[in-house]
Design brief:
Layout: H1 12-22, E1 27-30, H2 37-45, E2 50-53, H3 57-71, E3 75-80, H4 81-87, H5 89-97, E4 102-108, H6 124-129, E5 134-137, H7 141-156, E6 162-168, H8 169-173, H9 193-205, E7 209-213, H10 220-233, E8 236-239, E9 245-248, H11 262-269, E10 274-278, E11 302-307, H12 313-324, H13 347-357, E12 363-367, E13 385-389, H14 398-408, E14 415-420, H15 421-424, H16 430-437, E15 441-447, H17 452-460, H18 467-472, H19 482-488, E16 492-496, H20 499-510, E17 516-521
Parallel strand pairs: 1-2, 1-3, 3-4, 4-6, 5-6, 7-8, 7-10, 10-11, 12-13, 12-14, 14-15, 15-17, 16-17
Antiparallel strand pairs: 9-13
Helix pairs in contact: 1-2, 1-7, 3-5, 3-14, 9-12, 10-12, 13-20, 14-16
């Protein structure tokens, strides 16, 4: 229990730590700098915060994202001034798209030092607003605790928000800090009964209806309700492509996503006359292409919002179940569990091998980019697991998200990274934190020695890559030695050139309470 100290003998940084702890923020992903030393000192003196060190700020923000997706509560990050926040913005962008709740603590110049325009002085608030739902700067020590409680409240608001608290050094070191009581997170906006009635009317008419699920609606409770509705009405079910967290495997729906590619997505959605959105946005392309539409659904299709992203998908689907009188319906059986496949690595073979060997209750962090787009259909019969996707398109989140998820699971669940080699180079420092924390993380490094997705995108815009373009998309000059890179970060690693070798290494890694990297040559 962290008691309040209402005297003037507490510094601002101490009130910050106490307030975070009584607000149930007990994990800090940290990359501290000079301006944060009083906060670091307070973390040293006050027990209760699990401090996880990382080697670059984009690792820390990605870890906090992965932590939230599994723990369903915010962690905090500790970032150094405006440039530190800037380093972390790529994965804050991804976290915002994944609807993750994060409290960023950004140290900053002392208030009286800012007018001197020291080298690290920056428009920290301005940068924070581009990736945050809530931004505040504490002006003095007495405000820090109150501001921290407000930041935690904002981060916890449904469906999860990015809150950034900027902490000037003098507000951290001055006396006069006061611990603030936790603030109640406001409830989600209520479901509109008219939206429920309209969705029921559309479903009863039964004219090529798609129920599109996203975010909370792709977790197990909502899936069960959505299946009751689909089973009773004949509607189709799909998930949005960029869901941050999906419940998958045996006992969950065999739920596919809207395809990534424009042509495939347009074909997949072309027959639907009505699309009911459950915490989802209308499907649009990642990018624009010459002569192709931005939207993937037919121009004649009618969109119906059952629930917005900030509303409770479970409540919305339950209301629709009740309105329709949809009876209980068991989740369809996905069939027998696949067997591991040998031979040369293929997408299908790796997916089957993963489904055959993954432990129960595993977590998969998927940044396989182009190689893994078809993994879903071959992993439905795997044991029940959580699947975490890249949500915002800013590559480099796979390894940090996996690391944060493992921290959230307390080291009790195996985390498997399906990781493209090019994007892994954005955040390979995550391996060091995995080794430091002895996390049960298995990375399957999909090594094709190129930015393969960009070769496809080059063709998508109507061009054929020539020698100069191909040289800019090639990672083989010189080759990246992932076994040595992992070993240099303290992680055991081995190379596999066949799926037989990959399967043996997977089984070996799953027996160890430590990280392991498989350099799979594809």
């Amino acid at each position: 229990m962290h008691s309040k100290n209402l005297t003037n003998q507490m510094i601002g940084a101490e009130s910050l730590v106490h307030t975070l702890l009584i607000s149930e923020v007990d994990t800090c992903f940290a990359n501290p700098g000079t301006s944060e030393m009083h906060f670091v000192g307070a973390l040293d003196r006050i027990p209760g915060m699990h401090c996880v060190l990382g080697l670059q700020e984009n690792i820390m923000t990605g870890m906090a994202d992965g932590y939230y997706r599994i723990a369903r509560k915010p962690a905090c990050t500790l970032l150094h001034c405006g440039p530190g926040l800037a380093n972390g913005m790529g994965n804050l962008h991804n976290a915002r798209r994944a609807r993750a709740g994060i409290v960023n603590i950004v140290g900053d110049q002392a208030t009286y030092h800012r007018p001197f325009d020291a080298p690290l002085t920056a428009d920290t608030e301005g940068m924070a607003r581009t990736v945050s739902h809530w931004v505040r700067t504490s002006i003095n020590a007495a405000d820090v605790g109150r501001d921290a409680a407000a930041a935690v409240q904002a981060a916890g608001a449904m469906p999860g928000q990015i809150a950034t608290l900027i902490l000037p050094a003098d507000a951290s070191w001055e006396q006069g800090g006061v611990v603030a009581e936790p603030l109640a997170v406001p409830p989600a906006p209520p479901i509109d009964p008219h939206a429920v009635e309209n969705a029921a009317r559309v479903l009863r008419a039964g004219r090529n209806v798609l129920i599109l699920l996203a975010d909370q609606a792709t977790l197990a409770p909502s899936q069960a309700l959505a299946w009751r509705i689909a089973h009773a009405t004949g509607a189709s079910l799909l998930a949005s492509y960029t869901n941050g967290h999906m419940a998958r495997g045996r006992g969950r729906l065999q739920l596919e996503r809207v395809p990534y590619g424009t042509d495939a997505a347009i074909q997949s959605l072309g027959r639907f006359e009505h699309i009911i959105l459950v915490n989802a946005k209308p499907p649009v392309g990642f990018f624009a292409y010459p002569g192709k539409p931005s939207t993937h659904y037919p121009s004649h299709a009618q969109l119906h919002v059952l629930s917005r992203p900030d509303q409770d998908a479970d409540a919305a689907l339950q209301a629709l179940v009740d309105e329709l009188g949809a009876p209980e319906a068991p989740i369809p059986d996905p069939g027998p569990r696949p067997e591991a496949v040998g031979g040369a690595p293929t997408q299908e073979g790796l997916a089957q091998t993963l489904a055959a060997l993954m432990p129960d209750d595993a977590i998969v962090s998927n940044e396989s980019i182009s190689f893994g787009r078809d993994f879903y259909k071959l992993t439905h019969a795997a044991p029940a697991h959580d699947w975490l996707n890249l949500s915002g398109g800013a590559i480099g989140d796979g390894l940090p998200v996996a690391t944060g998820a493992a921290v959230a699971a307390g080291g009790r669940r195996r985390v498997i990274s399906l990781q493209a080699d090019g994007s892994a180079m954005y955040s390979l420092q995550s391996l060091w934190t995995q080794a430091r924390e002895r996390l049960p993380c298995t990375t399957i490094l999909l090594n094709n020695r190129k930015y393969n997705i960009l070769i496809g995108e080059y063709r998508n815009v109507g061009a054929v890559p020539g020698p100069t373009a191909m040289s800019m998309l090639d990672l083989s000059n010189p080759d990246l030695d992932w076994v040595k890179l992992a070993n240099g970060m303290g992680v055991e690693a081995a190379r596999a050139t066949t799926l037989d070798e990959c399967a043996d290494l997977m089984k070996r890694s799953f027996r160890e309470q430590a990280p392991f990297l498989i350099d799979l040559m594809i």
